[in-house]
Amino acid sequence: MSTQIPQQTEESSETETEPETASKGDERRTEKRRRAAEERERRQAEEAEKAAADDETVELKVFRYDPEVEGKQEPRFDTFHVPFTKGMTVLDALMYSRDTYDSSLTFRHSCRQAVCGSDAMFVNGGQKLACKTQIADLEQPIRVEPLPHADVRKDLVVDMEHFYEQMEAVEPYFQTNEFPDGELEEQRQTRENREKVKMSTRCIWCSACMSSCNIAAGDNEYLGPAAINKAYRFAMDEREGEDIKQKRLEIIEQEHGVWRCQTQFSCTEVCPKDIPLTEHIQELKREAVKNNLKFW
């Protein structure tokens, strides 16, 4: 018995110390995370003070809204002071604000070369690509908002689903029933025809034109300038053939197609790729009229 009691006592002691050791480990990890958070907040505060004290700063007023967080469900504007550097874009300033001041600031961006179209925003009262818009060209304070006439998901992110549906409605892909003879023969396009459709191919699906269109704001079924421009790109391509062109004209000459356009040129003015959208819509109107003229 004398040899068993110490063993039981030792086992009991080990059992009792294991939770204590684990508890101390949890406390150390919690303390480490707390110190890291405090250090991060301290650095952010220093950056903010440095930016505020710097003469070369940019003042951003950014729209904020988060329907999933209590206390942020009421739309507001937050102000950020960003150190200015030569060549800085609105996207650069937003990324600095997110990385330095508030990691919850939400917006879309990808290529940063005005190609992907994901960062279209409403900057100082106009639709612009954030990655293309130079801070030096804007008056301060710079007001950044999500695209108008679209449901806001969070901060500067809007729901693009309706826009994509309108784009898909015009069947934005090449179709033809006429193929060249021979398997290796290319489907050629004349230089003149390529020049005709060249500008329309530059569309990057950013929805800036759709957001600027008063008709689209009031008519949810209107195809919109971007979709009609995409229809123009293929309807005017000589390689598709007359039968496919006829099909496309039937799509765009519907009640909520080209005839809803009131030639306000707002879409052309805001297009970041300088596509003559209004001109393309008017040309499709002329094609639709000629298509319906019958001489007998």
Automatic annotation (TrEMBL):
It holds the Pfam family Fer4_8. Its cofactor is [3Fe-4S] cluster; [2Fe-2S] cluster; [4Fe-4S] cluster. Residues 21-55 have a biased composition (Basic and acidic residues). It comes from the Archaea. Residues 1-55 are annotated as: Disordered. Residues 201-275 form the 4Fe-4S ferredoxin-type domain. Keywords: 2Fe-2S, 4Fe-4S, Iron, Iron-sulfur, Metal-binding, Oxidoreductase. Residues 1-10 have a biased composition (Low complexity). GO terms for molecular function: 2 iron, 2 sulfur cluster binding; 4 iron, 4 sulfur cluster binding; metal ion binding; oxidoreductase activity. Residues 60-164 form the Succinate dehydogenase/fumarate reductase N-terminal domain. InterPro entries: 2Fe-2S_ferredoxin-like_sf, 4Fe4S_Fe-S-bd, Beta-grasp_dom_sf, Helical_ferredxn, SDH/FRD_Iron-Sulfur, Succ_DH/fum_Rdtase_Fe-S, Succ_DH/fum_Rdtase_N. The keyword Magnesium does not apply. PANTHER family: SUCCINATE DEHYDROGENASE [UBIQUINONE] IRON-SULFUR SUBUNIT, MITOCHONDRIAL, SUCCINATE DEHYDROGENASE IRON-SULFUR PROTEIN. NCBIfam families: dhsB, PRK05950.1. Belongs to the succinate dehydrogenase/fumarate reductase iron-sulfur protein family. This is Succinate dehydrogenase/fumarate reductase iron-sulfur subunit. The lineage of its organism: Archaea, Methanobacteriati, Methanobacteriota, Stenosarchaea group, Halobacteria.
